[in-house]
Batch of 3 targets.
Target 1
Amino acid sequence: MKWISDFGQLFYPNVCAACGNNLLTGESALCISCQVALPRTRYWARKNNDLEKLLWGRVDLQVADAFLLMPKKGVVQHLIHELKYKGNQELGVQLGRLFGKEMAIHQRLHDVDILLPVPLHPHKQRIRGYNQCELIAEGMNEWLKTSLETETL
């Protein structure tokens, strides 16, 4: 069976969405090198981080976190483009897995009750065929094992 998969790789190679190198067995959407190199915010490590300060007075929250920094023309902007416009749905799930793992490991973020992916406008959803936020939330939930509400917002 593996030879069929290997043969298919000749015509449809499974490549890293960030660097374009061939993915190894066990890698999904991003190679290990690119996963490690992603520019993480590390907001989970800081109380009163920049995101929390931005949201003060706007919403009642205990903790706010963002997974990655997104400088213009950087790798994260490229990955978001791949996810939203190139149909790379597995990338969304994989990014969610990476974020979910960090959230599950760090004490400050362990009390997540619910994941609420931001809905897409119905017209955009029909055109794209999927909601990228739901894909990220699905990946996160593999680690967080919490309630995933896709119809609440």
Target 2
Amino acid sequence: MTVDARADGLPAPGGALNHYVSDAPFDPNIDDSGVGEVAEASQLRLMWWQFRKHRVAVVSLVFLLILYTSTIFVEFLAPYQQDSRHLDDIYEPPQQVHLFHEGAFVGPFVYGRDMTLDMDNLRRVYDEEDARVEKLRFFCHGDPYMFWGQIPASLHLVCPAEGGTFFALGTDRLGRDVLSRMMYGARISLTIGLLGVTMSLVLGIVIGGLAGYHGGWFDAAVQRVTEVLQSIPSIPLWMALAAIIPVTWSPLLVYVGITLILGLLDWTGLARAVRSKLLSLREEDYVLAARLMGAGTTRIIGRHMVPGFMSHLIASATLTIPGMILGETALSFLGIGLRPPITSWGTMLTEARSVNIVAIYPWLIFPVVPVILVVLAFNFLGDGLRDAADPYH
């Protein structure tokens, strides 16, 4: 390497770009396509490259994609229909799946059980018989159902043996399969988070964006409203609004009402964050240039200012969804949210409100496991997306 300079000691024209040059001759066979590929890579591709470095976030993304995809085919994946009752199997403990019987490979199967009544403790006792092998069936016909309420079908991924039962997570007080109801409940609990956070994001960006861009009396009014809403405890406010929903409403209207409540009460934090960011961005040169070129308020905020802090919006969205899920679960657990016949993780947990029930039938609290896993997955995913979208990372 040699210094490219003039004889008088001054640097050569071109500045720092021409300061260091190589004495090696130009080789046209050198492959420099990688440099061009990186230079031409889109912002989304660069974000994806950065996101892949966050292993936990990638695993969380795959887990959530599988979970949300399964909600589409829940009727096929569930062993039973959500309201199928088995009166001879009330409060039956979970059945363990086995592969080997007496040293020989049989395949997935469960042992049959006989039920007896314990009159001393007033309980049902299920005794497992090692001689009764009930082999599970796959891609079989079982309980009939209406796929998405439109297409009649009866095909299931897994079914019990003919005349047998398969309760991987036990049954409840009505003899309904807990695993099947958890699968059906995922459709409600997961989608209510997406709908609620979409409404929250729209309200937060629109209201906070207008307050930060225009300022003045509108900004002052928005700040006073957000301060009042944030000063009220969340759970009592949710309970008060949820109690207003008439008991005569259909399950669909109740679902929409709970979604509206969760979305309308969770936009204040995002609106204040958007407002504070736009207060600083509205003085930038590119915003002034867009205004002088005749761009409207909507275009300036949506096309020029909001993309500048997209990383914060992404992190806020992924962290808001678990809050929505927990809000629905809490309202349904307290009995003022979604109501039967709607099945959600919150409505299933209402049966585990008694300490005695939990002590005797602990499998009824299994619906809390997917709630915990989904909340953790969204938190890890939010961290990964925030780091990937952060231009200063």
Target 3
Amino acid sequence: MKIVGEQLRLSASDVANFVACQHLTRLDLLNARHELPRARAFDLGFEDLVQRGEQHEAEVLSRFEQDGRTIARITVAPGAEAVAAQDTIEAMRGGADVVYQGALVSEKPGGQPTLLGRPDFLVRADLLPASDGEPAPTSLRYEVVDAKLARTAKARAVAQTAFYSYLLASLQGAQPRWMHLALGRGELAAFRVGDYAAYERQARKALGGFVAAEENPYPEPVEHCVICRWNDRCTDRRRSDDDLSLVAGITRDQRRLLKSAGVATRRGLAELDELPNGNRAGAESLAGARQQARLQVTSEDQGFLAYEVLDPERDQDGIIVPNRGLLAL
């Protein structure tokens, strides 16, 4: 996310980040406005992951070269995205088999954010397998291939690739039928663009509305936290707030229920006498979360590790259920 002059620029990563965590989008926007200092550098583990991802991308490029494909490499100088976008258009018009690190730009009227995409590869559709067996288009068309180190397709990766495909459609005048992920295990996973176009459009529209409305959601813990550059900041805030997410094993739905009932802290849950209404299974689970909160608060207040030994779970015949709790060890 960048601001050039007074124009906000949004990338595929910004859309994927918004899908992963709206608070992340809020922090990135403040940083783009120079209202919040940049977060700490990524840790060594993340830097290693980035390097492995770059190596995987280079391996995918090498496979295209070994297959004898003509490669058009696009370079983007700082502040020269428009030039790179024109170079990308010319490479596609020239019929290059593969456009490597092309630039896709969509200028929006009325002060709307400019959209910028940097897909790893744009590949001629007639050179890629069609999962439905339909013949390749007779006209010159391209499809997105993005290199991802993961062994399976993640929602974030699909969202990014759908964003690229949206920009590519406006550029070549037709929506590509397929988009592809070159996964870490060597598989080329194909996804029908039409199946994800509405999802991508809604996410992009929601992101624009979120930015315009200046929303500031709470930093709820999500899967993306483990690789997020803002993770330390959000973790410190949750600790300072004594947020319910600090209760071990509590679920997001339980936190929502408690906060809607006016209970927003771990200590507040520990001191709660009457739990919010819910079904029996939910009530039992919530009672377990309250007991966990009480043990954690007791441990902090009294300076020792408070714990409770639970009886092994048994089935309806009274037989101990295997692989539950400590028995899983």
